[in-house]
Amino acid sequence: MDVAIDLIKPSPYQPRLFFDTDDLKGEIERDGLLSALVVRKRGEYYELIDGERRLRVLKELGWNRVPLVEIEVDDRTARRSVFKVNKIRENYTVEEEARYYKKLADEGMAFFEIGKELNVDDQWVLAHLNVFKLRANSGL
């Protein structure tokens, strides 16, 4: 299915803060888009589950329509999927991972629930959440 690129919105659960798109842009210019973006329908728009770097590049290249694969998933599955597909491609920075865990904690998840949900050691989650406590205490 192809849709207007303006109907696709990034996931609010995208952990990435930094997107290196230079190599990908060259590949898409040379070979075209080799894999469709993965989305879920959210009212009048589509929420991106997989493909934010591709979406950014396609916008830069002036594409008006893009191929999509639409999946039906609940919020919890969407959140987990966004985290996992991005981590598979490239590890997160400490800041990206810490912000993501904090977002989930701010939504009411305990650190051990976050760990279980994402298949990450709960002490790892706690250590990343402590980044924000250190910043608050140091005035940064």
What does this structure look like?
The structure is a single chain. The chain contains 6 helices and 5 strands; from the N terminus they run ββαββαβαααα. The chain is of the alpha/beta class. The protein has 2 domains: 1-90, Conserved hypothetical protein from pyrococcus furiosus pfu- 392566-001, ParB domain (Alpha-Beta Complex), CATH 3.90.1530.10; 92-140. A 5-stranded mixed β-sheet has the order 1-5-3-4-2. β3 and β4 (45-50) form a beta hairpin. The N and C termini lie far apart (47 Å). It comes from marine sediment metagenome. GO terms for molecular function: DNA binding.
**CATH fold description of the largest domain:** Conserved hypothetical protein from pyrococcus furiosus pfu- 392566-001, ParB domain
Q: What structural class should be given to the helix and strand makeup?
A: alpha/beta
Mean pLDDT: 88
- Would you identify the regions where 5 or more consecutive residues have pLDDT less than 50? none
CATH class label of the largest domain? Alpha Beta
Shape label = globular
Helical coverage, percent range: 40-55%
The CATH architecture of the largest domain: Alpha-Beta Complex
**CATH homology-level superfamily of the largest domain:** Conserved hypothetical protein from pyrococcus furiosus pfu- 392566-001, ParB domain
Taken together, the total number of domains comes to: 2
End-to-end span in angstroms? 47 Å
Let me know the number of strands: 5
Task: From the alpha carbons, calculate the radius of gyration and give it in angstroms.
Answer: 17 Å
The largest sheet has its strands arranged as 1-5-3-4-2
Number of helices: 6
Biggest pleated sheet:
5 strands, mixed
Would you list the SSEs in sequence order as H and E?
EEHEEHEHHHH
